[in-house]
Amino acid sequence: MTDRNLLERAAAAMANSYSPYSRFPVGAAIECADGSVFTGCNIENCALGSTICAERVAVGNAVSQGHTDFVRIAIISKGTNYCVPCGQCRQVLMEFAPNLEVLCARGDGRYVSYNLKNLLASPFTNANMD
Question: Which ranges constitute the DSSP H helices of the chain?
């Protein structure tokens, strides 16, 4: 799957966003090592702390189907800035894939690529629990 294909899957997921409060729809598509792809969109709640980001919805969809071998995620919004994952999402992604490629797109379709390790310095991992 090409970067563009994965971004298209994220954009399709964004169409299902429930974002009446922020009016900032986000879509994500996470690719597994076997080529399977799982998507998610942000789901807001009037109790804002209960909002779920698109990235965590995509991860939840994948994990609920038995997939945890992530290699790449695409994230897109309609904004003019690149849509990067929040800190909570970075931590959740780190749990499964420290070397994950993160494609961050903006509304015009342009995107940048990061390695998750560069987005989350000094993460809390299971090694910290020893």
Answer: 3-14, 54-64, 87-96, 116-119
Angstrom distance (rounded) from CA 43 to CA 17: 6
Whether residue 18 contacts residue 42, with contact meaning beta carbons closer than 8 Å, is answered with yes
pTM of the model: 0.95
**What is the Cα–Cα distance from 113 to 67, expressed in whole angstroms?**
23
In contact, 118 and 98? CB cutoff 8 Å: no
128 pLDDT higher than 90: no
Amino acid at 91: Q
Tell me the average pLDDT of the chain.
96
Asked, for residue 127, whether it belongs to a domain, the answer is no
**Number of separate domains in the chain:** 1
Of the listed 31, 44, 55, 101, which one is catalytic? 55
Domain of residue 81, CATH code: 3.40.140.10
User: Is 55 a catalytic site residue?
Assistant: yes
Query: How confident is the model at residue 56, as a pLDDT?
Result: 98
